[in-house]
Give the backbone structure.
Amino acid sequence: MLVIVKENYESMSAEAAKIIANRMRRKPNLVLGLATGSTPLGLYKELIRMHKNEGLDFSTVTTFNLDEYVGLPPSHDQSYDYFMQQNFFKEININPRYVHVPQGMTKDVNAFCEWYEKRIVEFGGIDLQILGIGGNGHIAFNEPGCSLGSRTRIKTLTEKTRNDNARFFSSMDEVPKYAITMGVGTIMDAKELLLVANKSNKAKAVKAAVEGPVTATCPASIIQMHRNTFVVLDKESSALLEIEYVDTWESMLFE
């Protein structure tokens, strides 16, 4: 694990984007795992800048998103499909045929989850998986107490998660109760992991994930068991760490 700490959100986002761009240039047909939420927005903006100003080419890149709400169509402004289209895909030259986001409106969720797992395998597995982290240590919709060997599946959202997300909806009744999510085991199959976090409200979760015991009570702690993990943080989210960290990903390259 390589822990990288930058001064602020902007420099943290730029550092994470540099890692992704490096992997894309080394492997033009990279299979990239994507995450939603406010934290990765900065790195997506930087990748868009690199595409427009530096010619970073996404035409042969394949993407797989971590999760999606059940019951929301791609056109819904709170669906993760919509999020990715508005904040990333529409600004780059990615081929829509190579974009994969879980289908929240599927009529057979279990069959779709099996297909999603097989689809990842068909593309040779995920090369680099972007991850955020929840305040309770969750990754994707894998909440505390989930199986650390889990695969893509439907999950019932906790009341805390639904309450946290209620601000994006008109009423609590509109907040989805279920989501399709990659499992922890699926995430761990990626060849490299890139976890990004910022702000002081993530400091406890970051400490538990990076320095605490590997336990299902903090699903993100499983990243300690992956041989190729980047953790890119700002100063605030790293405030509780005691381990040694660096200030650039170029300090160590995973081969």
Notes: Strands lie at 2-6, 31-34, 62-65, 67-69, 99-100, 128-131, 153-156, 178-181, 192-197, 229-234. Residues 9-26 form the longest helix (18 residues). The helical segments are 9-26, 41-54, 80-87, 109-122, 159-165, 184-188, 203-211. Residues 2-251 form a domain with the Rossmann fold fold (CATH 3.40.50.1360).
